[in-house]
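dumping this here so i dont lose it again. seq + smiles for 2-acetamido-2-deoxy-beta-D-glucopyranose
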Amino acid sequence: MRPANLSCFDVTVAVVVAVLLTTAAPSVSGQRSDYPTANLSTRWVNNAAVLPHSVTYSDGSAVRAIVLRSPKAFYGPSFAAGFFCAPPCQTFVFAIFIVYTNSGARITLPVNGMAQVIWSANRASPIGENATLDLTRDGGLVLREANGKLVWSSGTSGQSVAGMEITENGNLVLFDQRNGTAWQSFDHPTDALVPGQSLQQGMRLTANTSTTNWTESKLYMTVLPDGLYGYVESTPPQLYYKRQVRTNKSGKNPTRVTYMNGSLSIFVQSTQPGNPDDSIALPKANSTQYIRLESDGHLRLYEWSDAGSKWTMVSDVIKIFPDDCAFPTVCGEYGICTSGGGQCICPVENKSSSSYFHPVDERKANLGCAPVTPISCQQMKNHHLLTITDVSYFDESQIIMNVKNRDDCKQACLKNCSCRAVAFRYGQNDSDGQCQSVTEVFSLQSIQPETVHYNSSAYLKVQLTPSASDPTQNKMKTILGATLAAIATLVLVVIVAIYVRRRRKYQELDDELDFDILPGMPTRFSFEKLRECTQDFSKKLGEGGFGSVFEGKIGEERIAVKRLEGARQGKKEFLAEVETIGSIEHINLVRLIGFCAEKSNRLLVYEYMPRGSLDRWIYYRHNNAPLDWCTRCKIIMDIAKGLCYLHEECRRKIAHLDIKPQNILLDENFNAKLADFGLSKLIDRDQSKVVTVMRGTPGYLAPEWLTSQITEKVDIYSFGVVLMEIISGRKNIDISQPEESVQLINLLREKAQNDQLIDMIDKNSNDMVSHHEEVIQMMKLAMWCLQNDCNRRPSMSMVVKVLEGAMSVENCLDYSFFNANSVISAQGNPSTYSAPPQASILSGPR
Ligand SMILES: *[C@@H]1O[C@H](CO)[C@@H](O)[C@H](O)[C@H]1NC(C)=O
Ligand SMILES: *[C@@H]1O[C@H](CO)[C@@H](O)[C@H](O)[C@H]1NC(C)=O
Ligand SMILES: *[C@@H]1O[C@H](CO)[C@@H](O)[C@H](O)[C@H]1NC(C)=O
Ligand SMILES: *[C@@H]1O[C@H](CO)[C@@H](O)[C@H](O)[C@H]1NC(C)=O
Ligand SMILES: *[C@@H]1O[C@H](CO)[C@@H](O)[C@H](O)[C@H]1NC(C)=O
Ligand SMILES: *[C@@H]1O[C@H](CO)[C@@H](O)[C@H](O)[C@H]1NC(C)=O
Ligand SMILES: *[C@@H]1O[C@H](CO)[C@@H](O)[C@H](O)[C@H]1NC(C)=O
Ligand SMILES: *[C@@H]1O[C@H](CO)[C@@H](O)[C@H](O)[C@H]1NC(C)=O
Ligand SMILES: *[C@@H]1O[C@H](CO)[C@@H](O)[C@H](O)[C@H]1NC(C)=O
Ligand SMILES: *[C@@H]1O[C@H](CO)[C@@H](O)[C@H](O)[C@H]1NC(C)=O
Ligand SMILES: *[C@@H]1O[C@H](CO)[C@@H](O)[C@H](O)[C@H]1NC(C)=O
Ligand SMILES: *[C@@H]1O[C@H](CO)[C@@H](O)[C@H](O)[C@H]1NC(C)=O
């Protein structure tokens, strides 16, 4: 045994109290010191203090055993039933698990020897601390919350129960006076099987939704009279696996699939035990094993390894598909799994830009996609079939037999509202194919016809919105929207003004007033609390120059926590910056929720922005479909409004000084918000120019940075650069481009002088190209913002007016954009900047 194990063993001795549960009887023989049985009228409370056989593992999971078998050998894995919790250990299931035990029937803790749950009573509705489990004569096992709410029961009322036992092969049995079985866990499998256990005809193994969400997913395996089948729940169910046994025998006995040492054996109807009709070979067991149907649809075999002192996945029991892409939920609903890379993408027609589907969770592509407009059976005339070529669908059970040609296949789907998609598969002749219809669309798989030797296309039903409604209505909407926005802005201005005045008063009253008691300020969090909210900073969203951003959750609210590394500021300066940021609130500015300043820890808590930063959406590095023109316009408007607020609507003028796509974040609905006010320096209205040291990011720096005479107009220049990037779908400085077009702004100068602006439009998007007239108008606005002379650039409120159509762009623009960035890049001397080019200390979540 390795030293690490030894020390763990020591820990165990300290943790586990060496007395048996008073409520659990020792075994009848009395020779072995395990406690596999329990008598009637016993209540167990889910509390570590009263269940002495409680152990917490290094991963944070814990078991509180009620009945336990001692291991077959001196020590090793054995079965127990009791309460189990997965990290972070806040909710529990009543479960059967395999634990590592020593000869004294004490659960011990070898490294990585976490308890393996093989059955559970209440996985969809976990219980809390102090919940109770009662074993009664008439009711069997009854699980209740601490407040008495019934969660689960074995449902054995009517049969009298005499006791409970965990058998040597892991079956939890309620037995009656005559030693008959009143109830057993083997009759109610969850997602796993142990050797000796059978899945009887009609029983199911149902996978967890995910490793963290244990609710039952839609995937299940079941035994039918002629074999083992895997389905995805839907009406009708969709078949993804089939092991059909062809036999001429017929009898009354139900078919069963038994997990034996070395095989998964299928016994059809009347056959004798020991003579299976078919079997799936498994690796022979060297030690304790179990198989589990997992959330990705695989049936996997796990085995305890004495040598490694851990559980290892030994094999995929059922190699259903050679390719993971073929699993029905691999990319969630409507997701397309791209062969080769195995990446998940949302369906887009002919790589056009109009998207009818959006990802359910931008950061987790494998969770699938959802239609932008839900399908409505009331408006069937607005149904349209989206063509996705070279994809296939797993379920071949719903073939419409009499339909052989593509158009009939599509028509059949359009006529039946419950049809959500058809897949059409054919060889050389597309009037002689197969039409598969589905009522619910799970993952699609992209194929290469040459390698799979067939052609297949999918037609997904989408709901068109009644064509871009009548223009008067749109105008009304715009006016209404603008009015509302104006009112909202006014209210905000008043609130902020009152607030700022109040704050000043406070400051005059008491300059040393403790920060965290100021009303309306961001909340002060303890470091411990933030560590908990972010699950010990486990989910990293991104990294900036001064620290990393982590995802977290406070209650139901998702947050982004920026942990500043090596913050050089003192507490006082930090609090001052937090105060500044916290006092700025606007719909287009990322909200600071709270902060933490404890010892050397400096953290900022921001609202969470599910779609991340704008650069992910405009540079095509993340496989996102190109944004359509309308979305781009909205994003531009949001940025403009956010900046306008900072420049002109705050009581004190605020220059952002680091406008770039990385600092523009998007929420679920692509509303854009500015992040990162760390570089902001307050500029008083009466001082038009303020000299500060050079800051910002190369590529977005205005020419006047060279002279160090800067005003908020530098933001307008950067805004112009961002505008051009949004329009062209590329980075301003892109060294992967041919030399003459590395710098977007130089390219713009050339195209503007030669009247070839149309070349600048993002060619990845047909939608952009088809709106080229409007796009060119937008480019003119960008060029206005890029004027060398900062006095010739518009103010942010003028930009907003132009965007709203209430003003037009200045006519005589100077196209000789002077590009400070080339000068600065050419110098190539990082010490030119006082701040690192990436981010400031207080930069927002990325
Ligand atoms: C359970 O019942 C058995 C047999 O009646 C008895 O020997 C044992 O002491 C009982 N155990 C408890 C904890 O009451
Ligand atoms: C559980 O019960 C114990 C004893 O009655 C009590 O001290 C403890 O606070 C309870 N725990 C919870 C989470 O309610
Ligand atoms: C009850 O059955 C178990 C195994 O099935 C056996 O070991 C035990 O002796 C039986 N007890 C009685 C009282 O028959
Ligand atoms: C759910 O899945 C996880 C990981 O796949 C597994 O550890 C756990 O035992 C499963 N839970 C239940 C209740 O089966
Ligand atoms: C767990 O998954 C189910 C769907 O299977 C979903 O309805 C539920 O919201 C999920 N729960 C959590 C906490 O994510
Ligand atoms: C079933 O019966 C048919 C004809 O009676 C025979 O040809 C076939 O081989 C039989 N199949 C099996 C698996 O016994
Ligand atoms: C499984 O079978 C193999 C060989 O048939 C044997 O060596 C092994 O001990 C068995 N495993 C168990 C757990 O019974
Ligand atoms: C069982 O042990 C043998 C010999 O030690 C080894 O070759 C084999 O891979 C092991 N089987 C599994 C499933 O680990
Ligand atoms: C997409 O491609 C299909 C077949 O190639 C064609 O029939 C359809 O008109 C195309 N759709 C669009 C929007 O271009
Ligand atoms: C529509 O499709 C569903 C599911 O495929 C099918 O059950 C139903 O019979 C169809 N309805 C008609 C009118 O064809
Ligand atoms: C796919 O269809 C085209 C014609 O539509 C045909 O030429 C080609 O052979 C087909 N490919 C396969 C693999 O059947
Ligand atoms: C294609 O299939 C249809 C229907 O089976 C048949 O009538 C037609 O002749 C076939 N065409 C070719 C070119 O084979």
